[in-house]
Specification:
Elements: H1 3-9, E1 13-17, H2 22-31, E2 38-43, H3 46-56, E3 61-65, H4 71-78, E4 83-86, H5 93-98, H6 100-120, E5 125-131, H7 140-158, E6 165-171, E7 173-174, H8 181-190, E8 195-197, E9 203-207, H9 209-222, E10 228-231, E11 235-237, H10 238-249, E12 262-264, H11 280-283, E13 286-288, E14 292-295, H12 317-326
Parallel strand pairs: 1-2, 1-4, 2-3, 4-5, 5-6, 6-10, 7-9, 8-12
Antiparallel strand pairs: 9-11, 10-14, 13-14
Helix pairs in contact: 2-9, 4-6, 6-7, 8-10, 10-12
Length: 330
């Protein structure tokens, strides 16, 4: 990691919400290597917090049981903090469809609660973890994350003389995160199938947990206020991903690949056929670096960015296989 970034985090007091989740816990893992003064980990999952604390010991880790819906708890959690990484969210699309206002309470009201607590304490930087499902959303989860993004970037406009910088990191699909398609496929193959495919034409942008967290840490270092940071990432056909996983895992569980039936079912409630990294209006404000796109309000860009997972070049099966091996899935 860049020496400047290492120096930036050294001695910092940091709060990570949703720290018992896949992304939050990996943020804690990476931060623990950068010599911060303290990492406060906030989650409403008591067992998950306990496991994170046991992994790292108590020297730098301060576990805080709490919920982002609770304003009073957040005020105490943010006291004297330099950087907030806000990863707490309800993320499963069908569950949010059937429990819409619970998604609003956590993803929208919870984000505003974190923003207000961070403003009151004049936190140095506030980074929201978002998703490409916030772009042209068709489901509750995406809509709540879009509003969370707007709440975050708009906080820069009314903060007055307070020093807090508010920015957003927008992810694609994080491979092998908790509850992701790779974990579902493993269980289906272990049970002898069938594996379920919602649509043969479905595509997604994908990234590893490690790449996702690297983006988060770089974004906090670079943030000046109002940006949306997006990692450059490949796209793939879900059908190709599924074929690779069946070919590799079926023998591991005592089956021949051809014995695992592929069952095509309807799209899940709220599910999109493809994802987008940004809207056309955002693309007109997007700056391009070697590793990421940075949407910066007020910027005019002439970049020709292909931001649709349906029209971008897809990973071939051999490339998918290499990525799955690199992340330790195969």
């Amino acid at each position: 990691m860049n020496r400047n970034i290492r120096d930036y985090y050294e001695g910092k007091k940091i709060l990570v919400t949703g720290s018992a989740g896949s992304i939050g816990s990996q943020i804690v893992t990476e931060l623990s290597r950068l010599d911060p003064e303290v990492i406060r980990i906030l989650d409403n999952n008591e067992t998950g917090l306990f496991e994170v604390e046991q992994k790292f010991g108590s020297r730098r880790i301060r576990p805080l049981v709490g919920d982002v819906r609770d304003r009073d708890r957040l005020r105490r959690a943010v006291e004297d903090v330099d950087i907030v990484f806000h990863a707490a969210a309800l993320k499963h699309v069908p569950l949010c469809e059937y429990n819409p206002f619970e998604a609003v309470k956590t993803n929208v009201q919870g984000t505003q609660n974190m923003i207000e607590a961070s403003l009151d304490e004049e936190v140095e930087k506030f980074i929201l973890i978002s998703t490409d499902k916030a772009v042209n959303p068709v489901n509750v989860m995406g809509a709540t994350k879009l509003l969370a993004e707007r709440l975050t970037t708009s906080a820069n406009l009314y903060k007055g003389d307070r020093k807090t910088v508010f920015s957003v990191v927008r992810f694609g699909n994080v491979l092998n995160s908790r509850g992701s398609i790779l974990q579902v496929l493993r269980e289906q193959i272990k049970n002898g199938g069938p594996v379920t495919l919602t649509d043969e034409g479905m595509t997604r942008f994908v990234m590893s947990i490690e790449n996702a967290v690297s983006l988060v840490l770089h974004a906090a270092y670079l943030a000046e206020g109002g940006e949306v940071f997006i990692l450059k990432m490949p796209s793939l056909r879900i059908a190709d991903l599924m074929e690779v996983v069946v070919e590799e895992l079926a023998p591991h569980y005592g089956y021949r690949p051809e014995e695992i039936e592929v069952q095509v079912i309807d799209k899940r409630c709220g599910e999109k056929l493809f994802e987008e990294l940004m809207t056309p209006d955002e693309a007109a404000m997007a700056l391009e670096t070697d590793e990421m796109y940075i949407i910066k309000p007020g910027t005019c860009s002439d970049s020709n960015i292909n931001y649709n997972s349906m029209t971008t070049r897809k990973l071939k099966k051999k490339d998918i296989r290499c990525i799955l091996k690199d992340i330790g899935y195969l």
